[in-house]
Structure formats: structure tokens, C-alpha cells
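Case study 2.
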Amino acid sequence: MNVNINIVPTLSSKSDEIFTNLFFARTFSESWKKVGAYSMQFNLTENSGLWTTIESSGFANATGSNGLQSIKLDLSGFNGIVPFDQEYRNAVKFVVIPDWNSVAP
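Prediction:
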């Protein structure tokens, strides 16, 4: 059995004023999408009852980008103060969303 999935990067703290300015693209020449609006598409195959195998010959072909995934922190529109004198963190979670309509009956 195969199933298509989307993997969407999101922030643990969505109210974060700095890291909400994270942008993703497959390559630098593509248009950048804000964290939460970007997704990577994969096709998974069931292997002995476990969903462990990424089809399409791995990461590179699954994303159509030779394996490249780009991320940038664009603070050009940020009007607040960046706390350079302290450690500042937020976690990026990768949410997996299966497309059950892609499963053959």
C-alpha cells in the first residue's frame, strides 16, 4: 500500500515575533513561502506493517529539487528589537499530513 504525505514545517511557539519570519523554498531561485505555508511532498510505502520507506528514490526525487531544501530568516520587515545579547530559541516542528485519498482501495 502507498500513501502520499505532505510534511509542513511549523513553529512550536506561533506567537514568536522573530521566527515567524522563517521562509522555506526548495531552491534559492524559487519563491519563498512562510513557515506553516510551505510543504514537502513524499510517497510512503508500507513495509512489513511499518511506514518506513520513502519512494521516488529518496529525498531528492521526492521533492524534485536534487535534495535541496532552503531556509532563511528574513528580518527586513521586522520592526522590533532583536535580542542579540541573549539566547533566543524556537522549535520548528515538521507535521506529517497523510492524503488518504491517494490510497488505492
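Residues 6 and 97 are 5 Å apart (CA to CA).
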